[in-house]
């Protein structure tokens, strides 16, 4: 099971293969470089990121039956045979509802984003 042979390679190569548990605010430059190889384990509680807001928000809103229903009615209004009034007018209610809900979600998620940014490790504040 265990080998009595001496490990091959340099000590630094051996360190990279082993698991090292160190605080993230260490002063050792070699350990700082090793820590940069790994992803941060910071916890994010925000629902959206800048890039994921539009797709995630639309995905959540299209799970509501009323939104899908009004989109269906707006699409039907573009067919000349079943057109009840101007097709562009039928888009106003659903666009307004989707926009107001998206703005509400932004205002709800922004304070959580601010708290996540304030919740940093001591070395990110410049404290040691």
TrEMBL record:
Span of domain P-type ATPase N-terminal: 35-89
Pfam families: PhoLip_ATPase_N (PF16209)
Superkingdom of origin: Eukaryota
Gene Ontology terms, MF aspect: ATPase-coupled intramembrane lipid transporter activity
Gene Ontology cellular-component terms listed: plasma membrane
InterPro entries (UniProt xref): ATPase_P-typ_TM_dom_sf, P-type_ATPase_N
GO biological process, one term: phospholipid translocation
Protein's recorded name: P-type ATPase N-terminal domain-containing protein
Species in which this protein is naturally found: Poecilia mexicana
Lineage: Eukaryota, Metazoa, Chordata, Craniata, Vertebrata
């Amino acid at each position: 099971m265990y080998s009595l042979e001496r490990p091959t390679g340099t000590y630094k190569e051996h360190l990279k293969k082993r698991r090292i548990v160190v605080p993230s605010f260490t002063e050792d430059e070699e350990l700082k470089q090793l820590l940069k190889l790994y992803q941060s384990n910071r916890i994010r509680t925000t629902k959206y990121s800048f890039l994921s807001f539009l797709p995630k928000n639309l995905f959540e809103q299209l799970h509501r039956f009323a939104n899908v229903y009004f989109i269906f009615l707006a699409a039907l209004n573009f067919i000349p045979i079943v057109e009840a009034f101007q097709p562009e007018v039928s888009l106003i209610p659903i666009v307004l509802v989707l926009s107001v809900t998206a703005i509400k979600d932004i205002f709800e998620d922004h304070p959580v984003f601010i708290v996540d940014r304030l919740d940093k490790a001591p070395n990110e504040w410049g404290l040691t």
